[in-house]
Sequence to fold (391 residues):
Amino acid sequence: MEDMLDSILSEEDRYFREVVRAWVERECPKAWCRELERREDVFPQDLWDKLVAFGALGIGIPEEFGGQGGSMLNQVIFARELARTAAGLTWVWGVTSFSGAKLLLYAGSPEQKQALLPKIATGTLKTAMAFTEPGGGTDLLGGLRTRAERREGGWLLRGEKIWSTGASVADYLVVLARTDDAVERRTQGISLLLVPRDLPGIEIQPLPKIGMRAYSSCTVRFDDVYLGTDALIGEEGKGWYQSLEMLNYERLINAATCLGILDGVIEDALEYLRTRRAFGKPIGQFQILQHYVADMAMWRAQAELLIFHAAKRQSEGKPIAMEAAMAKIAASEYANRAADLGIQILGGMGYSAETDMQRYWRDSRLLRIGPISNEMGKNLIAEQLGLPRSF
Ligand SMILES: Cc1cc2nc3c(=O)[nH]c(=O)nc-3n(C[C@H](O)[C@H](O)[C@H](O)COP(=O)(O)OP(=O)(O)OC[C@H]3O[C@@H](n4cnc5c(N)ncnc54)[C@H](O)[C@@H]3O)c2cc1C
Fold:
């Protein structure tokens, strides 16, 4: 089948894709990723070190801040290629190199950018996002109880976060906190704070979870944590608005991760269909199993077009709120459905921890829930279609 991305990717983009694909194949094979993922709450330092050596942390960070530069298309290509073998562990790259760096890039002061982005690009600094609270992630603002009050020389931070991925190994936590109650709208009076993880008063606990087990997602308690004035990212009270762009773009990276998972699922399903035999023939001769994999190929094609169309628009400076939401929802539903069928194709081996289908299933399952649930994503799409806000 012709490469459907021919009209979207430049020759340079295609070369970049080849280089990343070869690196992933050589340095991050599936069996190696599978072993890393198994080690609960043991940060996959080996993966991090390889990402650093490859220069991956600097992709999308402008050269003036020590990065490699590169467009949203490059970041989408990288996430997809890595996720083919690493699945959810792609977030070891994404949480710092995408979410943390993007937020600093869009909202940080010139001093913060100069001080922090080169460290991110060279892998000497990790960030984690601490937005969600125990009171709810979909209604993020309704659940927001964490507060930062102005004090002599800085801020006093109190509150609790949940599911902060990478918090236990991060150098800085990016925290969303209410800084002003006297506001007309609840989107106002919220600020973004850059919190050094090792300050007194911070307690971090990994949560047991079914996927991405090596890369801990944590509860974080802030018990009267004193921060300097330089902790503020961007403008006081504008934190919610400053986050929106990054959150939109993050959906595209999630979608690309799901697309990579679809690649991995299809690859492994085809291999098994060709080699496993039943009733004297390869199981790939049974029509129903052929239909399963044909469905997967159609889902992948749809996800691919949605994602790369949105990434191209972003690279051209066009808005992508609707496109990114659609891409994220479609890709996560397809990837999870495909991984489920993949388990069926592999039969008992699909349920084995020694093959990768279960890992693809567990990791794509999460991406239907976070960072924005697919139900909430559809609410946003419906609203953009002109229907009244449902929430
Ligand atoms: C493994 C993992 C890693 C994560 N990493 C991070 C991280 O690094 N940083 C961070 O800040 N957060 C992180 N999260 C949090 C994630 O973003 C939230 O779990 C997600 O936003 C959903 O919030 P919730 O879990 O509170 O579910 P809830 O908000 O309680 O939702 C429960 C259900 O209600 C539905 N629902 C709620 N409101 C509506 C509505 N208006 N219409 C229709 N349906 C609705 C939801 O779709 C969902 O099905 C992570 C979560 C997990 C599980």
